[in-house]
């Protein structure tokens, strides 16, 4: 079985910006595990454990779904927390210009539903996870830092990046954190 998911990889400039975004939060003394910038990706669909013999079929399905969506741009947005500000458990950075992303995600989910992968019950909420909080220690400081960041956010200065490919990733859980490997890639708007 291969633990897998479908996601967008991020360019190095975006990863550098996410690392800069996380720095002030690391200094707060939160009881949190921060995501390594090199491992942050934008998940479209978590598949879970998949039989190895199904990987090629899934790769073909993803290529078919990606081919009908043209490439598009996304912009880094403001910060937020899950599940809410009173009980923050995940610190994330959002995205702007997500309409084409939502269409792509719906298309991939619809094709995968035909292969037996149940659609998510919650609406898709695109985000880039910066940290997972293990306890509420200093969560008020986190909210204050988040509000300061969001208050200073200027959309026209936020990094923009092009989305041209979707990837099928393998995830291996290790004590040091998850390790990701691309198993297959599909270009947007490409029939080859």
Could you explain the architecture of this structure?
The protein has about 190 residues and is α+β, with helices and mostly antiparallel strands. Helix content is about 30%, strand content about 35%. The protein contains 4 helices and 9 strands, in the order βαββαββαβαβββ. It has a 5-stranded antiparallel β-sheet with strand order 2-6-5-4-7, sandwiched between helices. A 4-stranded antiparallel β-sheet has the order 3-1-8-9. The model has no long low-confidence stretch (mean pLDDT about 95).
Major beta sheet, strand line-up = 2-6-5-4-7
Strand content: 35-45%
Major β-sheet profile: 5 strands, antiparallel
What best-fitting shape do the alpha-carbon axes yield?
globular
Task: Report the end-to-end length measured between terminal Cα atoms.
Answer: 28 Å
Counting DSSP H or I runs of 4 or more residues, the number of helices is: 4
Number of strands: 9
Write down the overall mean pLDDT. 94
Radius of gyration: 17 Å
Topology:
Layout: E1 2-8, H1 12-26, E2 32-34, E3 42-50, H2 55-67, E4 72-82, E5 90-96, H3 99-113, E6 128-133, H4 139-152, E7 160-163, E8 165-174, E9 177-187
Antiparallel strand pairs: 1-3, 1-8, 2-6, 4-5, 4-7, 5-6, 8-9
Helix pairs in contact: 2-3
């Amino acid at each position: 079985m291969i633990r897998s998911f479908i996601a967008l990889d991020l360019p190095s400039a975006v990863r550098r910006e996410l690392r800069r975004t996380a720095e002030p939060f690391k200094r707060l003394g939160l009881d949190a595990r921060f995501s390594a910038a090199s491992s942050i990706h934008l998940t479209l669909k978590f598949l879970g454990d998949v039989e190895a013999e199904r990987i090629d079929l899934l790769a073909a399905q993803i290529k078919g779904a990606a081919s009908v969506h043209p490439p598009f741009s996304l912009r880094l947005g403001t910060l937020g927390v899950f599940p809410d500000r009173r009980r923050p458990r995940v610190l994330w950075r959002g995205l702007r210009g997500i309409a084409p992303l939502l269409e792509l995600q719906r298309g991939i989910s619809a094709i995968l539903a035909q292969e037996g992968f149940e659609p998510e019950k919650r609406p898709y909420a695109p985000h880039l996870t910066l940290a997972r909080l293990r306890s509420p220690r200093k969560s008020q400081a986190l909210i204050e830092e988040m509000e300061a960041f969001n208050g200073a956010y200027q959309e026209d200065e936020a990094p923009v990046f092009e989305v041209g490919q979707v990837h099928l990733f393998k995830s291996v859980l290790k004590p040091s954190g998850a390790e990701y490997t691309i198993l297959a890639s599909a270009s947007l708007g490409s029939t080859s």
